[in-house]
Amino acid sequence: MKLSITCTRELNNGNTIPLFGLGVYQARQGSECEQAVLSALEAGYRHIDTAAIYRNEESVGAAIKKSKVPRDEIFLTTKLWNSDHDDPEGALKASLKRLGLSYVDLYLIHWPVEKKRLHAWHILEKLYKKGLAKNIGVSNFTVRHLKDLMAKSNVVPAVNQVEFSPFLNQTDLLAFCEKEKIALEAYSPLTKGEKFKDKTLMTIAKKYGKTPAQILIRWCLQHDVIVIPKSVRKERILENADIFDFEISAPGMKTLDNLNEEYRTSWDPTDIP
Ligand SMILES: NC(=O)c1ccc[n+]([C@@H]2O[C@H](COP(=O)([O-])OP(=O)(O)OC[C@H]3O[C@@H](n4cnc5c(N)ncnc54)[C@H](OP(=O)(O)O)[C@@H]3O)[C@@H](O)[C@H]2O)c1
To answer: Which domains does the chain carry?
Structure first.
């Protein structure tokens, strides 16, 4: 399959999700976030990832409105924060109000909160049936959290959004998700810039005439993993999307796969009971 900025992958309910998008964690509410989303939509991005806890949903919604891109051409994700597991319906409605939208394309449980996540998921199932969320999924769930959820509910999460990069390649989780038809989505795919100076990564980037950031994003896509690099700078938003004119060779992918060192930039959910 030839990859492009708008190419999609099918979810387990028959809907589709653009494989490539923009993340807006730490994009400041106001002109910084709004301008980033506008730049991305102008550049052809059609998938935006925010969360209630990022406190920038108003700006994301304002940019979507300003962009004039039809709502049904944009895939918008937001997330249920940990302190809202008792009332996911109220939390989603508050997010929709801030976004100025009538539905989200994907609503995720942000973290697998102990003792509360199952109740939250059952409410998400209802929100999905009501159409307030076109798709529902989870984030930071390990295989154990997924198995537990799936054993006690009716809807299989469409997506699991987790930290994923050549330095944390999540082999077991990826295999499990593929088997269960849960699409894996990569957050912090650029390792927040912390691994840009890795020698192997730099060598591969040089070989293709690309930047380390571009190699990291392309590596996710070639694993059929959804990827949402964040930037608030127009030139980087463009750079991160300029990845559809080359392909990392099979040996190059193997070399990148071998960089795994369980390197995380965020909290590790493994020990959450
Ligand atoms: N579900 C979760 O728990 C969770 C956790 C973390 C993240 N996420 C989602 O995943 C998205 C991406 O992850 P992330 O924001 O943690 O990290 P990331 O995308 O790995 O890296 C973002 C950092 O890299 C910089 N950057 C971006 N493009 C660059 C380029 N081409 N060259 C050099 N530097 C570049 C950005 O700075 P500038 O903005 O200044 O360009 C920012 O500091 C988030 O925005 C969020 O939507 C979800």
So the answer is: 8-261 (3.20.20.100)
For residue 190, the CA-to-ligand 1 centroid distance in Å is 6
Query: Which residue's CA is the nearest one to ligand 1's atom 9?
Result: 187
- For ligand 1, residues with CB inside 6 Å are 23-25, 49, 110, 139-140, 161, 187-193, 211, 213, 228-233, 236, 239-240, 266
Contact status, residue 96 vs residue 124, Cβ threshold 8 Å: no
Residues sharing a CB contact under 8 Å with residue 9, sequence separation 6 or more, in sequence order: 16, 17, 19, 183, 224, 226
Whole-number average pLDDT of the chain: 98
The answer, yes or no, to whether residue 161 has pLDDT greater than 80, is: yes
Site to probe by mutation for ligand 1, drawn from 104, 188, 237 as the one with most ligand atoms within 8 Å of Cβ, is 188
Q: What is the pLDDT of residue 1?
A: 65
Question: Which amino acid belongs to residue 220?
Answer: C
CA distance 194 to 238: 20
What phi-psi label fits residue 75: left (phi over 0), alpha (psi between -120 and 50 degrees) or beta? Answer: beta
Predicted TM-score (pTM) of the model is 0.98
